[in-house]
Input
Amino acid sequence: EVQLVESGGGLVQPGGSLRLSCAASGFNFVDNDMSWVRQAPGKGLEWVSGIKRYTGSAFYAHAVRGRFTISRDNAKSTLDLRMSSLKSEDTAVYYCVLGFDPSGPRGQGTQVTVSL
Output
């Protein structure tokens, strides 16, 4: 059974930083692409960033490019998202997703709130 458990969310001021983590189990992590998606209040799922399975090549949505960094640790089966220069529009529930499809298997999410 695929299990994805996100952590690291919280309340942060505009301009601040957060690091999200995702612990994966129940599948062969090293053989799968992984992504982060988010869902802001009242909006649909938005793909944020993805990382390829073998090359580690990273991809970003235009809205977060240059501010967010995705990484993976295949030995630990973990996926991270380092977020900096956070803006109020980054407020959302962030999900770790298996694959690059936002509708793929995901965890329960972690709330990120950017506010004064």
